[in-house]
Automatic annotation (TrEMBL):
Signal peptide: none annotated. It comes from Ophiocordyceps australis. This is chitinase. Keywords: Carbohydrate metabolism, Chitin degradation, Glycosidase, Hydrolase, Polysaccharide degradation, Secreted. The keyword Cell cycle does not apply. PANTHER family: CHITINASE (PTHR11177), ENDOCHITINASE B (PTHR11177:SF365).
Amino acid sequence: MYMLKKKHRNVKVSLSIGGWTWSSNFAAAASSETTRRQFASTAVSFVKDWGFDGIDIDWEYPADEVQATNMVLLLKAVRQELDAYAAKHAKGHHFLLSIAAPAGPSNYNKLHLRELGELLDLVNLMAYDYAGDWSPFSGHNANLYPNPQNVNAAPFNTHAAVQDYLKGGIPQRKLIIGMPIYGRSFQKTAGIGKPYSGVGSGTWEAGMWDYKGLPKPGAIVLHDEIAQAFYSYDNATQELISFDTPSAVAAKVSYLGKLGLGGSMFWEASGDKKGSESLVATSLEALGSLDATENHLEYPDSRYANMRRGMS
């Protein structure tokens, strides 16, 4: 990772903490000044020891006003710790602070968006998982727009979330649209927005398939032009899989460009295809380049000698 940063000075690597599995620990970590300071200190220790460029907090999700307030306080503590480290060991450098942000209104309406907009460098909108095994109908995984003609297929949409975040106080340049490199499946269904029976197996989790294996043999790819979403359907097996294609990514990149948003992010790269069908490459080609600011390479107080020496 460090050698990649040395070779490509605009590549920055943040440490992401939390995620769906571990988010239940955040409420306690953020609950007092003492625990927030301890969390911040520990997080920044990872930055200096392993050569990261920032911290990403993936809290899924603050459950109420108290937790939303404590989330802001936790992020402030991390920001202060990052700045203190920079002042001592990386003068003039700004370490990144970001969050993974929900796209569902029941979750983001609890957040203090204006304060987050002032505090954070990036807000990575998790604009996916709009439908799955919890849904009453088969649906789109990551549609850009609603579809009034098929409401069951599009219970959520990225455009609505983007507008709410911007109205709530997140600056355009800080808002990043997340895109999935996987599909969500529905079994024994007559089509999109229809009842289904189970989600089947998956690449690494039931009902979830890496994009690099899609569409499956025998399935055809269909386009919901209103919702701007794609899915495959196998008439023989009645399996439907909703996933992003290069065309879907191109439409989203065009959308974020027109709004002046900060860019795109993907979950997650190992599921991508190569060449012209790569979703990441499609986004990069449309955007033109990665962020051009330089990463950080000097970590003089790392606990590891090779990191202190810059891997030389």
